[in-house]
Amino acid sequence: MSCLGGRARSWAYGRRLTDPTCFSTYEVFKEELRQAFEPPQNEFRSRAEFLDLQQGKHDVHAYAQRARYLVSDIVTNPIDEATKVVTFMKGLKDGPVKTYLFREYPSTLESAITLAMQEEFSLRQAKLHVNVPRPMPRPMAKPSGGPEPMDLSSATAAGSQQRRGPTNVRCFRSGNNGHYARECTAPVQAAKGRRDDTGYRHGQSKN
Predict the structure, then answer these.
(1) Retrotransposon gag domain spans which residues (predicted)?
(2) Residue at 140 is within a domain
(3) Are residues 97 and 123 in the same domain?
C-alpha cells in the first residue's frame, strides 16, 4: 500500500480504516484494487487484440511476448488452449517458421512459441553460415620481367638429330656413311684415292 499514490492510495487507506481485515491476503488486495481502478472492458479489449494479433515486422520473440502478455490479461474467461495455438500460428507472417509450425501443430501455446523461436534461430544460423566469405585462391606467381624459361629438351634432341644426319646414306667422295657429299669435310686428295662401291677410283674413266 505504501507504493500506491493518488486516488489508489486514498482508496486503500480508507478501506483499511473502515475495516482493518478487509485485505486478508495480497491476492485479495490486488483483485479489489484491479476491480476498483482497472478501465472497464479491459479484458474484452485484450481478448479482441489477441484474436487479431499479427507478427508484422516484429521478430518471433517480440511477437511471442505480446501474445503472452495479452493471454495473461484474460483471467475472467480464459481462452482455451487450442484457440491460443491457432491464433498464434495464424498471426505469424508467411515463411519457413509458419510452415514448420503448421507441419508440427503443437498442442499448447508455449510449445508453439518454443518451436517458432527455435526455428527462427536455426534459420538465422544457416543464413550466417551461407554469408561467410570464402577464402580466395592464391594467385599464381608470375615472373618479374625477363624472358620466360623454355623447355629446351625437345629442341636439343632435334638439333642433335639434325647434326648427326641420316645414318642410311653414304658419301660418294669419302665413302663414309652418315652424310652427303655436300657435307663432307674430308680433303679432296684423300677422297680421290677411295673407291666407291663399283670398284673404280673417283676421277678415272672406265676402260
Answers:
(1) 2-94
(2) no
(3) yes
User: Do 102 and 117 share a domain, yes or no?
Assistant: yes
Q: What is the pTM of this model?
A: 0.46
* Residue 32 sits in the same domain as residue 61: no
User: What are the per-10-residue average pLDDT scores of the chain (207 residues)?
Assistant: 70 71 76 69 85 92 91 87 95 93 92 93 83 63 57 53 58 72 67 48 48
- ∠ CA 182-183-185, nearest 5°, is 110
* Contact between residue 194 and residue 175 where contact means Cβ atoms under 8 Å apart: yes
- Count of structural domains within the chain: 3
Q: What residues make up the domain containing 22?
A: 1-38
**Distance (Å, whole) CA 69 – CA 133:** 41
Examine the domain organization and report whether 20 and 47 are in the same domain. Answer: no
Q: Of 200, 199, 198, 194, give the one whose Cα is nearest residue 175.
A: 194
Residue 71 belongs to a domain: yes
User: 96: closest CA among 118, 111, 68?
Assistant: 118
Looking at residue 186, its pLDDT comes to 72
Sign of the torsion formed by the C-alpha atoms of 120, 125, 126 and 132: positive
Q: Are residues 6 and 54 in the same domain?
A: no
197: Cβ–Cβ under 8 A, 6 or more apart, which residues? none
Decide if 16 is inside a domain: yes
Q: Which of 102, 74, 68, 73 is nearest to 86 (CA)?
A: 102
Residue 195 phi/psi, 5-degree rounding, is -95, 150
